[in-house]
Amino acid sequence: MTDTVSVSSPRREVTRHKLLDAAAQVFAEVGFDAASVEAICERAGFTRGAFYSNFESKNELFLALVAAVSSDRVRIVRERIAELRCRAEVRAASGDVMALLQQVLDFDTADGASVLLMSEIRIHALRDPELATAYLAQDDELHRQVTEIIEDIAAARMIAFRIPADRAARLLLTAWEAAAIRGMMRGLSEVERRRAVSEELARVAQIVIQPVDAEG
Question: Collapsing DSSP states into helix, strand and coil, what is residue 210?
Answer without folding.
Answer: strand
